[in-house]
Input
Amino acid sequence: MIRFIKNTSKNNLLKGAKGLLSLLLITLSFSGFAQEEDENIGTEVVNIVKPYTPTISDAFKVKETPVLSDSVNTQKKNVQYQIFSVPVASTFTPAKGKAATVEKAKPIKLYDNYATLGFGNYTSILGELYSNFQISRTDNAGFFFRHNSSQGGIDGIRLENKYYNTQLDGNYTSRQRDVSYRLDAGVKHQLFNWYGLNETYDTADDEFIAGLDVQQTYFSGNVGGSIAVDDSFFEKIAANVRFLSDAFGSSEFNVTAKPEFSFPLTSFTLKVDGEVDYLSGSFEKQFIDIGLGGINYSQLNAGITPSLVYLQEDLTLSLGVTAMAGLDLENSETDFFIYPQINASYRLVEEFITVYGGAEGGLTQNSYYDFKEENPYVSPTLFVAPTSQLYNGFGGIKGKITNAVGYNLRASYGKEDNKALFKNNPDVQSDTSMTEGYGYGNSFQVVYDAINTLSIFGELKVDVSEKFSLGVNAEFFSYNTDVEQEAWNLPELKATLFSNFSITEKFYGGASLFYVGERQDSFFKTGIFSNTPPNTVTLDAYLDANVHVGYRVDERLSIFAKGSNLLSDNYERWFNYPVQGIQGLLGATYKFDW
Output
């Protein structure tokens, strides 16, 4: 084995190269002779160690200048120019730059209080006073007073037909970090007259008419409140206590409480709503006083409504059921009810098409208070019982035709047991010695029947501009009664046309037109104990046109004018009860802070 190691010096490198060349030549010579004598000459290992030294080849630049071959060669011209600088005196001083700003609209001044006073024909008076007090950053208190009255004067009416309606409400609200609550209290005083004598008394002498006492007054008061809690499965509870009495010794006491709970689940929310409604009342007499005493009623409704609520981007679904117990405490009877509570809506095309539907039901606690609010001419001799809506299935479509035009179409069909209907009381003066002011066929009773109702509703709203909007809706009804001949005093068609407009920033107004179709009622011509059956009468359909305009004198004071029943139609809202003709009211509203 022969090992060569390269020296680092240059002389050693040259000597090594020459020695290596000589050795290779001697080796080749020996190899040539040895092969002839012996083929196996053995093996030798030669290791040559030499570091690798990379090199870079030389690069050569192309030293050629391209030659432009063009048919036209132009010679550049030398341009000589001179600058004449002349100083100019200037007194201009540039102004400092200022950032552009967006013109802000003047904020609307909000006032905590306002007072309204108005006077009109038929010696009518309208008065309102609202006031709010900021007790602290979280607490507020306020009250609202309203008075609306008229001294009557309806054409062709010989009885007193004035009315008063006065109401005072107060509230206290507190909004804390995690809880808020509200307290409410109010009183109401109302006066009405049973002026709707039937045609039998058209020829009665003035002395007889003047001797009739047909006045009725109602006095009611309420105390209630609500508590709402944030971030808790207990959401809210609302409770109310109300009392009612009248000029004939009638009284009613009503207590309600409605708690609400919510339990978030994985995909759904479980909502649980409760309801407790206790009603107790009495009337001193029955309509025909034959010594049986008065009428007492006492009802307790209690139930629970669990439901699963699912909310998606386009789908809203609520599946629930109401279990209700109705206890007639006066007659010791108990009924149990199960009602559906299903609601669903699905947005097909953004805000333009949304379909919805469902089925609902419930037990409604009728009361003397609710009856007189709808028809103040009822007699203080009513039978009060709850209404059970077994179901009401509905479906419809709503949305927008354009960004300025909205619509809603709905159809429904439902069944109600013990639905309350207003029906004219018979004239009993010729058959009994009764002398009460409501016994001349000029008051109304409440009758109950099982009724199936088909309803078709349509509505269209148009925002023509920011200063003018227009809307119209109509609803058609078809009734199927079980016992009664007609669905007394229920119209088959109702429609409303309404608009709001702003002529300028100071002038504003609105208009409305109400249409109510024909209704049916009945009355006795010859007395309740005669063999003659009651007659069915048809009340004509009517139109009621109303308009109001106002002018803002300044940010505090505005004046207004209202016109009602502008078509001058003394239509009958109830049988034998024509309304006032054209009614005008002129008034002013003033806003202020204490």
